[in-house]
Amino acid sequence: MNRIERILEFLSNQPNDNFLRHALALEYIKIGDDLKARDLFVQILTDAPDYIGSYYHLGKVLEKLGEQAQAITWYEQGMAAAKIAKDDHAYRELQAVYEDLIY
């Protein structure tokens, strides 16, 4: 059984587990299924806007898909969420990719 199958099996018992959904999205990125990864990250952040780690990866997937305006929006939302969470490390990472994209 591969990693995706195992994660899907775990998700069948815990469908709203953000850690598992995030892990699955990362696996989709590894195999080049960026659309599935994008959709999962959007689901996670719609359900749990405080799941800070997904903003960076969603933005990167959107950039890869040529959706720069959407990536900028998600980076901005991620920076706001990181500020609320007082997660300076995540804020700086998001700010760096945001600035790379807009400048």
Write structural notes for this entry.
With 103 residues, the protein is mainly α. The chain has a single domain (3-102), classed as Serine Threonine Protein Phosphatase 5, Tetratricopeptide repeat (Alpha Horseshoe), CATH 1.25.40.10. The protein is 81% helix and 0% strand. It has helices spanning 3-13, 18-30, 34-47, 53-64, 68-85, 88-102. The N and C termini lie far apart (44 Å).
Uncertain residue ranges = none
Total count of domains? 1
Q: Can you count the helices?
A: 6
**Distance between termini?**
44 Å
Task: Look at the structure and give the CATH class.
Answer: Mainly Alpha
Helix-strand makeup class: mainly alpha
Percent of residues in helices comes to over 70%
The largest sheet, given as strand count, sense and whether it forms a barrel, is: none
Q: Shape, please?
A: globular
Number of strands: 0
CATH architecture: Alpha Horseshoe
| CATH H level, superfamily name | Tetratricopeptide repeat domain
Any key phrases for this structure?
Serine Threonine Protein Phosphatase 5, Tetratricopeptide repeat; mainly alpha; 6 helices; single chain; globular; 103 residues
What is the secondary structure topology, with strand pairs?
Blueprint: H1 3-13, H2 18-30, H3 34-47, H4 53-64, H5 68-85, H6 88-102
Summarize, please.
With 103 residues, the protein is an all-alpha fold. Helices cover 81% and strands 0% of the residues.
